[in-house]
Amino acid sequence: MLGGTAVHFSLAASFFTEVRPVGPVGDDFGEAELDLLRERGVLVDDVERVAGGNSFFWRGRYEYDLNVAHTEDTQLGVFGEFEPKLSQPSKDADVLFLANIQPDLQRQVRAQCGEPRFCALDSMNLWIDTAKDSLWAAIAEVDCVIVNDAEIRQLTGESNLARAARAVMERGPRAVVAKQGEYGAALFTDEGFFALPGFPLEDVRDPTGAGDSFAGGFLGYLDGHEGELDEACLRRAMGYGTVMASFNVEEFGTERVARLTREEVDERFEQLHEMTQFEPLPVR
Question: What is the pLDDT of residues 221-266, one digit of tens each?
């Protein structure tokens, strides 16, 4: 089934801006898969087709509440020899997302780009365990870190999430987003703290790619925003990230997002806004 960070991120971000994914695929990634991205306006010029190879593959299962995933099989395929190659338009991107790959590769991509107005990074426990110094070096070169709450704690050695986020920001980023699965996400900046719950759904089929869809909605909105990327803008981006993740989990793989409309996205954003606002009243 079609999936992967580049796919989930690109589809989510394409509702807000132009997207140029960079990465390798094998012979098993055909024209039908590329057409799905093209139909959303995703520019696939930097998708590298490696003849005779197979695309990255992951198989796993989830526990009954879908919050805990167990990996059953991972095959790197052509991703194992990946050396990022960026076209000039990709190097000139205003917003850059360094997806979850080896930190030294993330730094290679960052070095090829100019001065984007916003750059974010994702990572995972594997790199925290095996390449922590390189990961810290990569973090120092970005504006925002988007990882799950357990990874922030593991990276910093802080059990308290707020202190862990502060420790990351002290290394350079202006913002930290802690993904918390069905419980939503939290934004930490020098100006304060903001959190949103996950959008409540009665039917959840497949959480695979939810975090990448969140990142796509978050950064896609920021790239499509012409004004200053201030605190208020980051908070709205959190809302769109939450909305895109909620659509992703409703069906398997890319099935739901493939037929999603911008009208549905905006309608759910308004629903999320309504369910998370309240008016303060004086205590008598």
Answer: 999 998 899 999 999 999 999 999 999 999 999 999 999 999 999 9
Closest Cα to residue 221, out of 243, 254, 203, 252?
Answer: 243
Query: Could you count the other beta carbons within 10 Å of the beta carbon of residue 104?
Result: 13
pTM above threshold 0.85: yes
Residues of the chain with pLDDT under 70: none
